[in-house]
Amino acid sequence: MFDLSQPCAMGIVNVTPDSFSDGGCFIHPDRAVERALDMVEQGASIVDVGGESTRPGAQAISVQQEVDRVLPVIEVLTGEINVPVSIDTSKAEVMRMAVSAGAEMINDVRALREDGALQACADLNVPVCLVHMQGLPRTMQQFPDYPDGVISELNIFFTKHIERAVEAGVSRDNVFIDPGFGFGKTLQHNYQLLRGLEDFSIHEVPVLVGISRKSMIGNLLDLPVEERLPGSLSAVVIAAMKGANIFRVHDVKATVEALKVVDAMHHADELENWGAG
What we know:
- By secondary structure, the chain is α/β, with parallel strands linked by helices.
- It has one domain: TIM Barrel (Alpha-Beta Barrel).
- It contains 9 helices and 8 strands.
- An 8-stranded parallel beta sheet has the order 6-5-4-3-2-1-8-7.
- Helix 4 links the parallel strand 4 and strand 5.
- Helix 2 runs parallel beside helix 3, helix 3 packs parallel to helix 4 and helix 8 packs parallel to helix 9.
């Protein structure tokens, strides 16, 4: 289902009123579907649909609110696109209903730590991404701290939670990991993660990264969300060169083009000779 022989883009579809970059833009199901279709046309290999914002300071919503936002979108998309739909959720009930509606992947910022989530993923037998987050969305950026080093502590976290998932019945072949840029990390932590991204290869599972338009780009460059594309692409290219497999992004076309250049570098000896330049 997931061809990871080359780096691929996961298009973000936020069916939310309060996401940090595009909150409210795609809250209506028709607009969310249109957004997803555009992303597939631009080269997205996966579409990630989420109904609850996890930006710093975000407030929790009910299962029913989340289901009402995402299910109409997933139901339409699974009949209209030829790439997998991922559900961005931490709630077991939403996971089950989304997969029943056609979603083929679960993307969980809480790494299956919510009630019932672990068993739901074991039962559903679809790929699941375990995201690292220190704390909760509404408080995670208050005092991020990694006394033993952010890479070291995240590797301990992933070892623990991969084993926990496998012991619960999740196939190891279905496990992805995401270091969670911006989820309980300072600017320094984020760039230490980017620098040391290849260290997560010890887990021998695919690595997903979400850097697109985040504050680690905006704060460094002193730019608003809508002007962060060049910085986001720079980070994506670095991550791809360090072995990341999937890139969760807002700007699909530009990201796909950047990733093709990185992939061409890795496979330079296999390229056809099209002449000078």
